[in-house]
Write a structure and sequence with these properties.
Helices cover 33% and strands 29% of the residues. The chain has eleven helices and 21 strands. Strands 5, 6, 13, 14, 15, 16, 17, 18 and 21 form a nine-stranded mixed sheet that branches. The longest helix has 28 residues. The two termini are 43 Å apart. InterPro entries: FAD-bd, FAD/NAD-bd_sf, UbiH/COQ6, UbiH/COQ6_monooxygenase.
Length: 426
């Protein structure tokens, strides 16, 4: 008889939680996994034909993330609406420095991809419906109590409350995790004093599958190619960094005025900005948790670390962390250890820590180097961009960081399948 109601509970069924559930179903199918999600599940959310809306929000997927989704069997479906990034152009507004990365120079068809968040969620849900993963939705995890070799998790749906016992609880409910605070995890926050404005835009010139990273005296902005997977279009996903005052000014403008302001900051590399969609925004801060695991509980994704979006590394870092956790849980099952054993979760934290520290340092240093700086510093960074464009070794290092291949990536082992190193892994 099973001692627990379920083996592992995942609090949060978003991209991180759903990916973790699918990976566990693929790699350790014997585990009983329960996902608790606040939004209800409905068959209406699984249309036969997907038509992206103009205002759909998207995520940048590094090449390394594609390799992970290939291992999970998700990429063939996901790639149907994933726009390739074949070039990256990095520039410093008002200065001569620039560098260019090209996928062909690294023997790949793309440096990364841009995918709608909703499409990714639909792909994950369709795959999960074919597994034994159980769902409690709508519901939320409100508390957790340690027990002998496991935990008891309190759940709530409206006025109804109940509990489930499990070996381990994984908190995957995002950067604004209320459960993380309720369980007493201490976060460290560094505010950048800026906001990210997110919108989709259309331009007179085709993006030619190029992502633009533009550093300005008011903060960085990024334009990621969006739309069709085979024909270079005119739509891009915008991430625009603004101070509080500048954000209020931009939000008060009409759409044509927003396009004009964006034109002034970005320039004419994509021709005239002709349309800007619905704008959303959020404050930018670096959030880390020193100790992301305790006996019986682990934080993953944005609940464990939230980065500045300047380098597009947030979800890619989270995905690598999820695969590291899956591998440690697989080994625990093989060795007869409890999933919530601190030795098991501690190994996950130690293995993932180096990756997130390097990624945080990479993203944070870009903000500091390309922030408002004296003339000698500005000249040095421009010379650095030119040098990066000319020196193959430095350029390859930068490209690997952008492709999500610079950090440690767990190679998951499926039952009955020998371990292998995927292409592009070092």
């Amino acid at each position: 008889m099973n001692r627990f109601d379920t083996d592992l509970i995942i609090a949060g069924g978003g991209l991180a939680g759903a990916t973790l559930a699918l990976a566990l179903a693929r790699v350790v199918p014997s585990l009983r996994v329960t996902v608790v999600e606040t939004f209800p599940l409905s068959a209406d959310a699984l249309p036969e034909h997907y038509q992206p809306s103009y205002d759909a929000r998207s995520t940048a997927l590094a090449w390394g993330s594609r390799l992970i989704f290939e291992e999970l069997g998700l990429w063939p479906r996901l790639s149907e609406h994933a726009t390739p990034i074949r070039q990256i152009h990095v520039s410093d507004r008002g200065h001569f420095g620039a560098t260019r990365l090209n996928a062909g120079d690294h023997g790949q068809e793309a440096l990364g991809y841009v995918a709608d968040n909703r499409w990714m969620g639909l792909c994950l849900m369709r795959e999960l419906l074919e597994t034994g993963v159980q769902w409690q939705a709508p519901a939320e995890v409100v508390d957790m109590t340690p027990e002998t070799e496991g935990v008891r998790v309190a759940l709530k749906r409206g006025t109804e409350t109940w509990s489930l016992s499990a070996q381990c609880l994984v908190v995957a409910d995002g950067g604004r995790s209320g459960l993380r605070e309720a369980l007493g995890f201490q976060t460290r926050n560094h505010s950048y004093g800026q906001n990210a404005l997110i919108a989709n835009v259309s331009t007179g010139e085709s993006h030619r599958f190029t992502a633009f990273e533009r550093f300005t005296d008011a903060g960085p902005m990024a334009l990621l190619p969006h739309g069709t997977t085979t024909r270079a279009g005119h739509q891009s996903a915008l991430v625009w960094t603004l101070t509080d005052e500048a954000l209020d000014e931009v939000l008060a403008l009409s759409d044509p005025q927003k396009c004009q302001r964006l034109q002034e900051r970005f320039g004419w590399r994509l021709g005239r900005f002709t349309r800007i969609g619905e704008c959303s925004h959020y404050p930018l801060k670096l959030t880390t948790v020193d100790e992301a695991v305790r006996p019986g509980v682990a934080l993953v994704g944005n609940a464990a670390h939230a980065l500045h979006p300047v380098a597009g590394q947030g979800f890619n870092l989270a995905l690598r962390g999820l695969m590291t956790l899956v591998e440690q849980l697989r080994q625990a099952v093989e060795q007869g250890q409890s999933l919530g054993d601190l030795q098991v979760l501690g190994r996950y934290q130690r293995l993932h820590r180096q990756d997130w520290q390097q990624t945080v340092q990479f993203s944070d240093s870009l903000i500091r180097i390309f922030g408002d700086a004296p003339a000698p510093v500005a000249a040095a960074r421009d010379a650095g961009l030119v040098g990066l464009d000319l020196l193959p070794g430095a350029k390859r290092w930068f490209a690997r960081k952008a492709m999500g291949l610079g950090g440690r990536r767990a190679v998951i082992s499926k039952p009955g399948v020998a371990r292998r190193e995927p292409a592009g892994h070092e």
